[in-house]
Write a structure and sequence with these properties.
The protein is mainly beta and 477 residues long. It contains two helices and 30 strands.
Length: 477
C-alpha cells in the first residue's frame, strides 16, 4: 500500500511540473485570440457593385444564378448576429461601415448561406471578413441576393467542412453605422444592409403583442410598424426561435434598427432586428389618428340607404359615379374599375387601387361616398369587402367625417376619423381571399357624414401593393 501511495504522489507532482513547464508567462496560458489577417493581393479584390452587376447581367440573360470562376475576393462587414436567434445559418455582410460616398461607392449587401449555427461565435457583429468567391454562386434566396454553393438553378448552403476556407475573419471589428431612412425611401438597393427607421411605432391594433410568441405566430412574428412622419408601414419580422420572442414590443415610438430584407416567401419587405434592444421606443407619445367606434352591429338592417358594387365601371379607368368623389391627393393614380377571373378574382367588377409602375414617389387616393344623412332613420351600419394582391407595405384605411365641405380642395382639411371597427385586409391575410369588414355600427353618430376609403403607397416596388374594394353597403332598420 505504501509503494502504491508514493507512486501516486510522484505521478501527480510530475503532471503538475509538466503543466507548469508549458506556461511561458505569469498569465498561465491565457489564450491568444488574435487572428492572422488573410493576405489578398489587390488584383484579386473586387467590389460588391461589380458582383451585383455580374448577377444582374445573368438574370437579364435568363439565368437565375451566376457561378464565379475567377480567383477573386470581396471584403465586407458582418451586420447580422444569431446570438439573439433571429438569424439562422446565414451571415449578412455589407461593403461599408456607413453610407459615405454613396454615388461613387454605393452601400450594398449580400446574404451568405452557411450550414452552421452559432455563426456569431466565429464572426462578430461589425467584423471585417474576406470571402473567396471562386466556385461560389450568386443568386437569390427569399427574394434577396445571396452567396452560396452552386445548386444548378438555385443557391445551396456552404457546408460546415468548408466555410472557414471561404469566409475568412480579420482582426478589424468596426462600429457599424446604420443608414437612417424613412420607410417610404427604402428600395431594393437597401436589402441586406443595416438601416435605422426613426419616429416609428407599433400599429395601434397590435399594441400588447409580443415579438413572436402569439398563438398565431407559426415560424415568425410579423408586427406592423408605422411611420409617424408619413404613416407608411413596414413589417418587423422576429423568429419564434429567438430568445426575445416573449418580450412585449414597446408601445411608445422611436427608432427601429435592423436588416432590411424580404419575408421567407418573398411576399413583402421586412426589417429584421438582431435583438429587442434594436427597437428603441422611449418616447411615450404616440401618433395614432383619431378613432371612432360604435362597435359592431348585431344584425344587418332590413333597409338599404347606399349600395355600390361598381358593376357599371370600366376596367382600368378611374371610378366615375354620381355623387362619389375619386380624389388624387398625391401621384397620378386613382381608384379604378377592375375585373378578373384569375387566382385573385374580382367579385364581378370591383374597385381597386394599384400604384405599381406609376413612377410616383407617393400615391395617395381617396374614394368618398355621397353624403349620408344619419338623422332620417335609425340603426345604420356599414359593410364592405376588401382583398389585396400583396400589399407590399402600402395600406388602406376607412374614415368618416362630418365636416367635409364636399370639395376636393377641402378633403385634407376635414376632420377624418378612422372607423376602427371596420376590418381591412392585411398583408398577412390569405392571398386571393375577400374579407368582410364586419357590420360596422354607425348608429351612435348623427348628422350628415361622408365615408372615405383611402389608399397610401408609391410606385416603388416595396410600396406598390394593390387593394381591391367591393360591395359597399349602408343599411338601416
Amino acid at each position: 500500500m505504501k509503494t502504491i501511495f508514493n507512486k501516486t504522489v510522484y505521478g501527480i507532482i510530475g503532471a503538475l511540473l509538466l503543466c507548469l513547464s508549458c506556461v511561458q508567462d505569469d498569465d498561465f496560458g491565457v489564450p491568444n485570440i488574435n487572428i492572422e489577417d488573410p493576405v489578398i493581393s489587390t488584383e484579386k479584390l473586387t467590389t460588391f457593385k461589380a458582383i451585383t452587376s455580374l448577377y444582374e447581367q445573368a438574370v437579364n440573360g435568363g439565368n437565375p444564378i451566376v457561378v464565379i470562376e475567377d480567383d477573386i475576393y470581396i471584403e465586407g462587414y458582418v451586420v447580422s448576429s444569431d446570438k439573439g436567434g433571429n438569424f439562422f445559418e446565414e451571415l449578412i455582410i455589407q461593403n461599408k461601415i456607413d453610407d459615405s460616398n454613396p454615388d461613387n461607392d454605393p452601400r450594398l449587401g449580400f446574404k451568405v448561406e452557411i450550414n452552421v449555427s452559432s455563426l456569431s461565435d466565429t464572426y462578430q457583429f461589425g467584423q471585417k471578413v474576406v470571402i473567396k468567391l471562386q466556385g461560389l454562386a450568386i443568386g437569390e434566396t427569399s427574394g434577396v441576393v445571396a452567396i452560396g454553393n452552386d445548386g444548378g438553378s438555385s443557391i445551396n448552403q456552404i457546408q460546415a467542412a468548408e466555410y472557414r476556407n471561404v469566409v475568412f475573419r480579420t482582426n478589424d471589428i468596426a462600429e457599424m453605422q446604420p443608414i437612417v431612412l424613412n420607410p417610404e425611401d427604402l428600395t431594393e438597393a437597401h436589402e441586406n444592409t443595416l438601416v435605422q427607421l426613426n419616429n416609428m411605432q407599433l400599429n395601434r391594433f397590435e399594441l400588447g403583442a409580443t415579438f413572436a410568441s402569439e398563438s398565431f405566430d407559426e415560424f415568425d412574428g410579423l408586427r406592423l410598424m408605422e411611420s409617424c412622419n408619413s404613416g407608411v408601414q413596414i413589417i418587423m419580422q422576429t423568429s419564434t426561435f429567438s430568445d426575445f420572442k416573449t418580450l412585449l414590443v414597446p408601445d411608445g415610438n422611436g427608432s427601429v434598427t435592423g436588416i432590411y430584407s424580404r419575408d421567407f416567401r418573398d411576399n413583402f419587405s421586412v426589417i429584421l432586428p438582431k435583438s429587442a434592444s434594436d427597437v428603441n421606443f422611449e418616447n411615450t407619445d404616440r401618433c395614432d389618428p383619431l378613432e371612432f367606434s360604435c362597435g359592431l352591429a348585431s344584425t344587418i338592417g332590413s333597409e338599404n340607404l347606399l349600395y355600390e358594387d361598381f358593376e357599371p365601371q370600366r376596367n382600368n379607368r378611374p371610378i366615375e359615379i354620381d355623387g362619389w368623389t375619386n380624389y388624387i391627393e398625391a401621384g397620378t393614380e386613382a381608384w379604378e374599375g377592375y375585373s378578373s377571373t384569375s387566382s385573385n378574382a374580382s367579385l364581378g367588377r370591383s374597385c381597386r387601387f394599384q400604384s405599381a409602375s406609376s413612377g410616383d414617389e407617393s400615391n395617395i387616393g381617396w374614394l368618398i361616398t355621397p353624403p349620408i344623412d344619419l338623422d332620417a332613420q335609425d340603426g345604420e351600419s356599414l359593410r364592405f369587402k376588401t382583398s389585396n394582391s400583396l400589399a407590399d407595405s402600402s395600406y388602406m384605411e376607412v374614415f368618416y367625417a362630418d365636416d367635409w365641405d364636399g370639395t376636393e380642395a377641402g378633403v385634407t382639411a376635414a376632420t377624418w376619423q378612422i372607423l376602427s371597427d371596420a376590418y381591412v385586409v392585411k398583408d398577412s391575410d390569405s392571398f386571393a381571399e375577400w374579407f368582410s369588414s364586419g357590420n360596422v355600427d354607425l348608429s351612435c353618430l348623427s348628422g350628415t357624414i361622408h365615408i372615405a376609403f383611402k389608399y397610401t403607397g408609391s410606385g416603388q416596388s416595396t410600396f406598390d401593393g394593390v387593394y381591391e374594394l367591393d360591395e359597399i353597403s349602408v343599411d338601416y332598420n
